[in-house]
Predict the structure.
Amino acid sequence: MPEYLANHLGKIAPQLRGARRVLLFSDFDGTLTPIKNRPAECFLDPAVRNVLQTLAESKQFAVGVVSGRELADLRPRVGIKGIAYAGNHGLEIEGPGFSFLEPIAVSRKSELDKLLADVAPALAGISGVWIQHKGLSASIHYRQAEPATIPPLLATIRRLSAPSVDANRFTLRSGKMVMEIRPAVNWHKGKAVVWLANHLALGDEKPPTIYLGDDNTDEDAFRELPDGITIAIGNKRMTAAKYSLPNPSAVHAFLNWLLTTIVN
């Protein structure tokens, strides 16, 4: 079970203050901003945007937002220039002077289109369910569905996806009231963060790395950063993260602490 981060700020402060470079990565939905019934309603609070922008401009911090959203959707919701963005769980990455697209995921876009063409009609009659096609992956949201419809809904998704999953072309991953369909590649948020760290460290071999996330997909990043300051958001008892914070409001307080206490 992770330790409550607020009780350990005195422990991590010297590590951060003494660093020439600190890498700060965060998930978006459920971490920087509260989860809403419709993902289209989520935007970064201007006050939080200003803190992250100031951290990024300090040159002591490199900032990245890592999300399941596609980049084209993520960037305007965060609205900070000059930072790194990883979308589609890291399948697409952009930052100052670099970019990345996972090649196998790109090659399977047409297969994903065909899979969703099979899945969409089977779910069309279920109230409160909608499919978010993100180019390289897809999310099937059911937060607003009636509880009784969810088990058969998930069974339908698994059944229709089974040929692609069995052929190791795509995988299914569950999140908070969402089922993710992703290409079966050895790439995820954790791999993306390691890739980003190599591009943002500016020659530091082991800069302190902070990662905040609330969902099952963020566990990949926690596991890839065994020496990092990993922070699970929410009441997660089983997690690879070292620390926890209860909600996005506590995340905002932590970011303010970084700005007022750590930045030289």
